[in-house]
Amino acid sequence: MGLRNGIFTVPKQNLSFTIIAATATRRIVTSFENIHSFHPMNTTAPPALPPGCRLVDTHCHLDMAEYQADLAEVIAAANRCGVTKIITIGIDLASSRRAVELAAEHEGVYAAVGIHPHDAGTADDEVFRQLRELGAAPKVVGFGEIGLDYAKNYSAQEAQLPVFIRQLELAKELRLPLIIHDRDAHEDCLRLLREKGPFPCGGVMHCFTGDSELAEQVLELGFYLSIPGIVTFPKAESLREVVRGLPLDRLLLETDGPFLAPVPFRGRCCRPEHILHTAAAVAALHGVSLAEIADQTSRNAEKLFALPA
Ligand SMILES: [Zn+2]
Ligand SMILES: [Zn+2]
Question: Would you say 193 and 167 are in contact if contact means Cβ atoms under 8 Å apart?
Fold first, then answer.
């Protein structure tokens, strides 16, 4: 395709190719809408959100190095795709502070503050004092990510437990919903959530990849389950089976960017607009339209995090 006298000229063979490509795309889009033939791995066509629909990326790490070269464009691209709200998540004091700054700088960006279990070893009284201050800042809508990670054990379990407990109490005091990170620590995590609860502002089990029994227990606590891009991975059939059975009014969607990009971006930097692929996969699993999943999960996120509709 070239530009001559201000008019685009398309060589004949390219034009016919364009038509064939457009037809092929339409076929892919149609199969996307046909939930029975849809399989998350079968297409690379970017799902498009119908006009008027919105999506909320409830868990992204916008402060991380991967985004810094073009952060404004990362947010703008998400907005163009209908991802109108992004919650950027703290993992330590510095990233929590940055989350608050990013929320102040960007429309549609909200913050969560907290100390990740990996960083539990760094949490002394001074960290807690500053965390309490940050938690009261404007546009802070959640407390997290906090929890327990027995898969990596970057901080000793004996260090993780008291830091988690103290943050559960702080979140309650600040009246913020909890954003829970639980990896291979279900028993302790659930026990502490039961012991220290109830939590009047509720919470979410982020990056949920557990089985239906775990899902049931999280739902019993009154928490939401946030589905990551993992649901599109070829080997995630058991997660897809679990997601099929979950109530739509308790589901959230997240990227956990820059990690865990859904298919077809797997292995690359995950950007907030990639959440469309996760949404399309969940829609297909529930046999509903992308618009319906977008609307329901956005309403859930707005409710939990008290975001403007
Ligand atoms: Zn996490
Ligand atoms: Zn995270």
Answer: no
User: 151 CA to middle of ligand 1, Å?
Assistant: 12
CATH topology of domain 50-304: TIM Barrel (3.20.20)
CA 180 / ligand 1 centre spacing (Å): 7
Helix (H) or strand (E) holding 269, with range, is: none
What are the residues facing 88 on neighbouring strands?
60, 111
Neighbours of ion ligand 2 (CB under 5 A): 256
Q: Please tell me the distance between residue 180's alpha carbon and the centre of ligand 2 in angstroms.
A: 9
Q: Report d(CA 222, CA 176) in Å as an integer.
A: 15
Say how far apart CA 187 and CA 257 lie, in whole Å: 27
- Compute the distance from residue 37 Cα to the ligand 2 centre, in Å: 32
pLDDT tens for each residue of 51-110:
999 999 999 999 999 999 999 999 999 999 999 999 999 999 999 999 999 999 999 999
Q: Which two tokens stand for residue 15?
A: 């034009």
Distance 206 CA to ligand 1 centre (A): 6
Q: Model confidence over 113-124: pLDDT tens digits?
A: 999 999 999 999
- Model's pTM, two decimal places? 0.86
